[in-house]
Amino acid sequence: MVNLSINLNNAMTKTTELKGSSFTLSALHLIDGDIKKAIDHLKEKIELAPNFFASAPVVIDISNAGKDINFEQLKVAIVDAGMIPVGISGCKEQALQNQAKSAGFAIMNAARTVKEKTAAESTEAEPSSQPVQGRESALIIRTPVRSGQQIYAKNRDLIILNHVSAGAEIIADGCIHIYGTLRGRALAGANGDLEATIFCQNLQSELISVAGNYWLSDNIQDEFWGKGVVISITDNTLSIEHLAL
């Protein structure tokens, strides 16, 4: 008779790990408690860039929405609009937090992204322009990026030596350079890098984003449409300027 007894403690293998991570999420800011008005606005944005927003996770910021919020109604309305509500931010009162939790929302605290500088710190040398440590060499794409295509330059810059069609999506953890017309979507700093920048020779984009801060086409001023531009983060918001050649 062969002894088939097994020490289960020794036989078990590690199948999961719980680690901290960070993700870039869209945030729906409720200006007041009018859920219908907020959802109508959300639907308009989704219609402008359905491939970007459809089934995307969204956090709802209620810091300015008051105390009379129907969280169940809010959740159902966002799902019906086509996005996935995952959490509530700007919720400091325990009673509101309990209501949000009962409706299935996580309570999320916004990370502090800007450090206040002292006068001494502000006079220090400018940040280094050296590549981020560990970042790989740029991914270079020479062919047109066609509708429905998605290109992701993980942990590096992305250089497009051609056009990006409407319905196409280009993403980079670093900077994005487009030496052609951008009609699709461009998302730089996808891992949260606030130093990332988009350089584009002809901006006609459906959506541009840097480190989670985004503009749709209707947010782009007429003076920059169809022009060479540089898009970056200034004071924690998107800024745009003409590309000097």
Task: List the SSEs and their pairings.
Blueprint: H1 8-11, E1 26-29, H2 35-48, H3 50-53, E2 57-61, H4 71-81, E3 84-89, H5 94-102, E4 106-107, H6 119-122, E5 139-141, E6 150-153, E7 158-160, E8 169-172, E9 176-182, E10 185-188, E11 198-203, E12 207-210, E13 213-216, E14 229-234, E15 237-242
Parallel strand pairs: 1-2, 2-3, 3-4, 5-7, 6-8, 7-9, 8-10, 9-11, 10-12
Antiparallel strand pairs: 11-14, 12-13, 14-15
Protein name: Probable septum site-determining protein MinC
Function: Cell division inhibitor that blocks the formation of polar Z ring septums. Rapidly oscillates between the poles of the cell to destabilize FtsZ filaments that have formed before they mature into polar Z rings. Prevents FtsZ polymerization.
Keywords: Cell cycle, Cell division, Septation
Tell me what you see in this structure.
- With 245 residues, the chain is α/β, with parallel strands linked by helices.
- 19% of the residues lie in helices and 28% in strands.
- The protein folds into 2 domains: 26-107, ACT domain (Alpha-Beta Plaits), CATH 3.30.70; 139-242, 3 Solenoid (Pectate Lyase C-like).
- Strand 14 and strand 15 (237-242) form a beta hairpin.
- Helix 2 (35-48) packs parallel to helix 4 (71-81).
- The chain starts with 7 loop residues before the first helix and ends with a strand.
